[in-house]
Amino acid sequence: MEEKDKRVHFRTCPLCEATCGLEIHTEGNKVTAIKGDTLDPFSKGYLCPKGFHLDKLYSDPDRIKKPMIRDGNTWRETSWEEAFEEVKRGLQTIIKKDGRDAVASYLGNPNVHNLAGMLYVPILLRALGSKNRYSASTMDQIPKQLTAEWMYGSDFSIPIPDIDRTNYFLVLGANPLVSNGSLMTAPNMRKRIKNIQKRGGKMVVIDPVSTVTAKAADEHYTIIPGTDAYFLAGLLHTIFSEGLEDLGRAENYVNGLEDLKQALNDFKIEELSLTCGIDVHIIQKLAREVAKTERAIVYGRMGTCTQTFGTMNSWLIEVINIVTGNLDKEGGVMFTSPAAGSKNAGGKKKADRFGRFHSRIRKQPEVLGELPISCLAEEIETPGEGQIKGLLTVAGNPVLSAPNGERIEQALSSLEFMVSVDCYLNETTRHANVLLPAPSALERSHYDLSFYQLSVRNIAHYSKQVFGLPEDQLDEWEILLQLAAAVMDEELGVDPVRALDDYAVMQLIKKEQRNENSPLSNKDPAEIFSNLSHRRGPERMLDFLLRTGEYGDFFGEVPSGLSLTVLSEKYPHGKDLGPLKSRLPQVLTTISGKIEMAPSLLMKDLTRLKGKRDKNADHLLLVSRRNLQSNNSWMHNIKELTKGSNRCTLQMHPNDASRHHIEDKSMVSVESAVGKIEVRVEVMNDVMEGVVTLPHGWGHDLDGIQLEQGRKNAGVNSNRLSNDRMIDPVSGNAIFNGIPVSVSRCDTNKDVVG
Ligand SMILES: Nc1nc2c(c(=O)[nH]1)N[C@H]1C(S)=C(S)[C@@H](COP(=O)(O)OP(=O)(O)OC[C@H]3O[C@@H](n4cnc5c(=O)[nH]c(N)nc54)[C@H](O)[C@@H]3O)O[C@H]1N2
Ligand SMILES: Nc1nc2c(c(=O)[nH]1)N[C@H]1C(S)=C(S)[C@@H](COP(=O)(O)OP(=O)(O)OC[C@H]3O[C@@H](n4cnc5c(=O)[nH]c(N)nc54)[C@H](O)[C@@H]3O)O[C@H]1N2
Ligand code: SF4
Ligand SMILES: [Mo]
């Protein structure tokens, strides 16, 4: 290998929300080393084992590299032309026969870690014109987004913990030392938490499991799964009844506070405490600490979102942060000022994006433009007008990720036509008729458009491709635009990708110009367009977004401002744009212009806290757990990340084990209302009595998948137990935590790898 082939690349890791900077050494088309980039102003050299092995995804021999068409159980590689022709034929047949809503879309999590997904999927969905939009959001953070939409006006106006300046961090249902943080982009959470403690502050964790994060905390309290709303109502009750409220910066901007206070008056703290299993005096102590500590945060994530009170939890957490004066304050929770993307400010909206239409079968309201994933299977299965006959998946694996995976699986196999854009032939994409290969992360450029909107500092970091695309590989944005062209009725000429891309950029320009305060409002749109003409694809859009963003150069109007050229040439390790800044009131886009403290559907939902919670004494409550080496369902084909002991186990408390005559390491059968699995048990004190935990994203033993390594350590699909009929009734979000299950010894106790 010639010396000149050796190169060093700096780029952010696109795998999780932490956005760590990587230093990638290459020789020719091989990666020789990956390290943490010590010059990255945000991650400062931190990385986790997944980032360290990012190249293994690129070099995985099982990764799909050619478009493929399925004929029965056999796949054949084909040309892009034939693949898109086949997509056009398959989807247009359904559209002509049954209308556009008969073709659904499902978007998986990696879309938000990918510029193509962020910028071009919306164009594809508009071209498709179907109401049947589904995504991983409705089994994740939609309660947080809906709460932000109702309270602050926009679903992306989510206040972020200002963790680097806080003195008190109360964490519910999150395990950031394993997940690396969510809706709180902050590489190296361990260090950030240690720094809170070094400053004399503290972290308190509420979790049914003594997780790595709980162990790093100053205090940990277990909670009965699914009952956080009772605990949070208890905190609020204490704050109000002891007169501890002080709204601080939010004082003049709230609506409905008195109604909320009145509603909470009805509750008795003793009853709330009994239901959640946390002592009254602990609830009161924590309430006083949150209210009295200068700079405190209450933060809740997955464990609080994907449970029966998902939206109520998200709401009560916002309310507590507001009434203790911690919203929009240093060391409290703050809105970001991202360099590109949603400006989360400016103007009042006309209506909430909720309930504008309903699902056909369950009549579940639309939430932020989509329908809950828990409705997908029934919409495919149930005949009649409006039935889903075709599906397009982009970067998603609902068979392993979504509730009642087995039902989804069956539903997918009954579709008339399915198209998937993915890197693997896996549990979901094996049902596709056409599978289109997405390039791997190292072959595309990157900018964390989503996560810099959710980050604990304002950051901008653009990464160039590490490797060029192979000659016969389309970039993901080109695939998405080709798909858009295939489902449109209009003729787009000889270069449909170019036509759609140009159109999309023109739309962005016009949108910016509609803002009369924009320095571009009086410019000729054609001139702006031609200013961008040396770029195409995501780079052109990103350049425009950066130049017209908070720190933008507005095409020369602000000479020291940011552009893509400045960012990529001057700041190869990323640019730190400083700590979060106060943004009230301009961040508010609600109809009233105020923070809505008492959204009507949530006020109504409070009555649910009054009913008795029935619990079958024989049932254990299943919750989910993550592992540092995994990333949802799709990184189990990497040997380096799956070696060692079997991670797909049921964790159980010793008292529950002995009550059910279950021995450590034995095989057990776990049964819920919808399914049954067999899995190996790990008996341990870390899990609260009455609770069992399983990881999700396993079950790689299905026929016809191309995951050789994954199959060796297949594990079982925990989502055969989660119930698509159990949802958070407000947002429709899926429930993965607090699922009643019965656990018993396996009759045979045969040596199955679970
Ligand atoms: N029981 C339980 N279930 C859960 C959860 C839980 O905690 N417990 N968590 C939920 C959460 S938070 C989420 S976000 C969902 C995730 O749900 P999904 O997004 O449906 O599942 P993933 O496992 O992330 O699958 C990602 C897919 O994208 C493909 N892929 C990876 N990179 C790319 C790319 O660059 N381009 C393209 N086109 N494809 C790519 C992968 O091969 C894989 O098929 O799972 C949910 N499911
Ligand atoms: N290593 C790794 N990192 C990841 C992922 C991954 O799969 N692996 N996935 C990424 C994705 S898509 C997401 S969304 C984020 C999620 O990241 P986090 O929000 O940090 O979620 P989890 O790690 O699932 O932690 C949820 C915690 O909630 C607890 N819990 C369960 N039920 C309850 C309850 O009723 N009340 C309370 N208070 N706690 C409860 C669980 O025991 C668990 O410790 O992680 C991301 N990062
Ligand atoms: S923490 Fe997340 S962003 Fe950082 S290296 Fe690991 S997977 Fe990548
Ligand atoms: Mo997620």
From TrEMBL:
InterPro entries: Asp_de-COase-like_dom_sf, MoPterin_dinucl-bd_dom, Mopterin_OxRdtase, Mopterin_OxRdtase_4Fe-4S_dom, Prok_Mopterin_Oxidored. Coiled coil: none annotated. Keywords: Iron, Iron-sulfur, Metal-binding. Pfam families: Molybdop_Fe4S4, Molybdopterin, Molydop_binding. Belongs to the prokaryotic molybdopterin-containing oxidoreductase family. It comes from Alkalihalophilus pseudofirmus (strain ATCC BAA-2126 / JCM 17055 / OF4) (Bacillus pseudofirmus). GO terms for molecular function: iron-sulfur cluster binding; metal ion binding; molybdopterin cofactor binding; oxidoreductase activity. Residues 6-62 form the 4Fe-4S Mo/W bis-MGD-type domain. SUPFAM superfamilies: ADC-like (SSF50692), Formate dehydrogenase/DMSO reductase, domains 1-3 (SSF53706). Its cofactor is Mo-bis(molybdopterin guanine dinucleotide). This is Molybdopterin dinucleotide-binding region. The keyword Iron-sulfur applies. The keyword Iron-sulfur applies. It comes from the Bacteria.
